[in-house]
Amino acid sequence: MTAAVRLLLADDEHLIRGALAALLGLEDDLVVVAEAASGPEALAMARAHRPDVAVLDLQMPGADGVKVATSLRTELPGCQVLIVTGHGRPGHLKRALAAGVRGFVPKTVSAQRLAEIIRTVHAGHRYVDPELAADAISAGDSPLTSREAEVLELAADGAPVTEIAERAALSPGTVRNYLSSAVTKLGAENRHAAVRLARERGWV
Amino acid sequence: MTAAVRLLLADDEHLIRGALAALLGLEDDLVVVAEAASGPEALAMARAHRPDVAVLDLQMPGADGVKVATSLRTELPGCQVLIVTGHGRPGHLKRALAAGVRGFVPKTVSAQRLAEIIRTVHAGHRYVDPELAADAISAGDSPLTSREAEVLELAADGAPVTEIAERAALSPGTVRNYLSSAVTKLGAENRHAAVRLARERGWV
DNA sequence: CGCTCGCCATGACAAATGTCAGGGGACGGC
DNA sequence: GCCGTCCCCTGACATTTGTCATGGCGAGCG
Residue B50 pLDDT more than 70? Predict the structure, then answer.
């Protein structure tokens, strides 16, 4: 018989992580060798235990799942990464795939299904939740240029133009122009609605 | 021996709900009699199965945990409500307690601990996570009047004043006055930052 | 009864923001 | 080399905001 798949579980919600560990541990061919509650901790655990598959939550303190995946890609090329997320936004999926993530599923799947997906990913295949994939495709690519996205992000917390200009080392007029074009491209009423839209689509 | 505590589990994330059901089911004195993935479904399940304790996620499609709790309070007075939440904001705790919720815990607790808390709540006691309680106390009460909060909420999606005025059936000038006073009270830079602050503190 | 407070409104002014029309420079593709 | 695109800026303008002063109305309270 082949050895069981060694898993790393990372999620900041102890309740979920523990429950998941217990359920996945019931499968004969899966074994949880490490758990982590934050991004940095996940990295440390991965280095120490060298799992076959890392199951990462997208939103974690310290470093999010995609960042961790990026680091793992170079440090442990043999370790496949599977991202699990509560509310998946189209842009996140794109970023995740770009980071070399092999699987991307919402938390609405059952544990049974997750176990299957883990096996799929471990076998070298990819798995992306069909619904999330459809969202990502229909949402399309971000129409924003990098500067537009950057300025929009700085505008996210409601800061006035002058402050954004300072933080971006741009002239206030330029900031307003970028903001204006971003708002137009997104079809929003104003920059704040634009920020919301961009966030929803995962473009910031 | 006494009969086992009958539980209703409601959470839109199947992964968590299933895992939780499995883990809590392992306890001798707990039995999961119903599961739901949305607010309305939770209500229907509660009516059908009349559980002793309802374990509700705070954020669910349809109706959030607090709304469900309010309905349950009148329909099934014998059913104690325990709210579980990912990221607890101070105001939510306050609203929950006002709705007659008996327990309020973050998802960072372990399943073991949750089982104990369920027993505590079923025994007629209350339980609030110490950390969340501290946050709620230090954050204090909302300084906003009801109209200020209402207008601020309508401003949340970045709508212009005229639109807010329309939706609130107020004059645009009045809206600006309320917004202005809310911004002042919260010590924010502008209304959008104010919305963020109020959200963080759970005041909207 | 007078007081305070929340509620709703108006009008006016200053400041911030959204929009438009420009113009230069860099860089890659045809 | 020319063209398109993105980058960065300027200046001017209309619109939207934030802020303030002011007033009327009703409810709760000493």
Answer: yes
